[in-house]
Amino acid sequence: MTPAMPRFATDILYVITDLELGGVPLHLERLARAMRDRGKRVSVVSLSPAGPVGRLLKEHGVEVASCDGCCGWDVRVVRRLARIIADRRPEIVHSLLFHANVAARWAARSAGFDSSRIVCEVQTVEVERKWHLLVDRFTHAGCRLTIGNSPSVIEHLATHARIPRDRLRLVRGGIDPTGVRVADPIARGALGLAENARIVLWVGRLDPVKGLDILIDAFARLRNADDVHLLLAGNGPLHEQLSRRVEALGQTHRVHLLGSRNDVPSLLRSADIFAFPSMTEGLPNALLEAMAARCPIITTNVPGCRDLIAHMETGLVVPYGDTSALAEGLQLLLSDRGLAARLGAAASASVSRDWHVDSMIKAYLAVYCEVSAAPRASSAIV
């Protein structure tokens, strides 16, 4: 008897907390487009108003809906999401980010949707909101599997959220490095800098977990570095606070808050160093893109970052919160250009070998196949 072929889901509904500019929404945008290009019927639901990534998805022909939530705990989104699930009846619901995961579990129950067809995804190691782990511990049974995007995330969920390992799946994050590698560098003059200026770059959301106050303090300690400039590309709640810190340190002529940029690949290709001193991450796309750009990298020994960067092999790794160590690492990369070039080249090779988007998409397809083939279960959260 010929064995049955594995059944692949062809209809996927993605649910996410918001579609603002950020690592996870942009990751979802790439994932949804990749699945659509592979013949899947794909749609996306945001608990919050759709935002700029929602507009980007629509421009690429992906259906986007919103539950119009006004805040993280607007419970009305559960009812609205349940209605969408009941009307749409997808084969698989795949949610990303904490609030979306919780909403998807409860909305599916309300809609009578089979919990064995729900996949939830966690993309960060929670250290600042430990109660998220408690909620996940008691609601994870409302989905078939929980995906983590790095070994550190999987270990954290197993140890601290106590999700059984047989309900966890590792799907390593990944990018297509081509877009970064072919980007044209930005002339120094276009950034308001002298042509001989050297650039230390950071990219992301101006958020307390990113360690930007430590980075600014470390940068101010650099010696013989009048030609070195720190560029912070991104927006967020810390913008005014960081501006005041830069002014207090007398660094306004060397530290520049660029705001949101749509030319990050070109910025990366222009940078002499990429600094990423986060307190916690899942698997940061900004770091992956810096690796693809062959940037010499200095980052922190925290989950997510240490999954990507090995000290003195693909970059420099320093303890989080250690301003002196961060300053010394920056000084080393600025002074030893041979070391900087070697680390940048090794990081770029690592992206192509270990963190390519093609491998990531194959891993997602394997998860969807597993979920589609599994026996159906009840939709109750236990």
Word description of this protein:
- The radius of gyration is 22 Å and the shape is elongated.
- Strand 4, helix 4 (98-111) and strand 5 form a beta-alpha-beta unit.
- The strands form two sheets. A seven-stranded parallel β-sheet has the order 3-2-1-4-5-6-7, with helices on both faces.
- By secondary structure, it is α/β, with parallel strands linked by helices.
- The chain has 15 helices and 13 strands.
At a glance:
With 382 residues, this protein is of the alpha/beta class. It has helices at 23-37, 51-59, 76-88, 98-111, 131-139, 151-160, 178-181, 212-220, 239-248, 264-270, 285-292, 305-308, 323-335, 337-354, 357-373, and strands at residues 11-16, 41-46, 63-66, 92-96, 118-122, 145-148, 168-170, 198-203, 228-233, 255-259, 273-276, 297-300, 316-318.
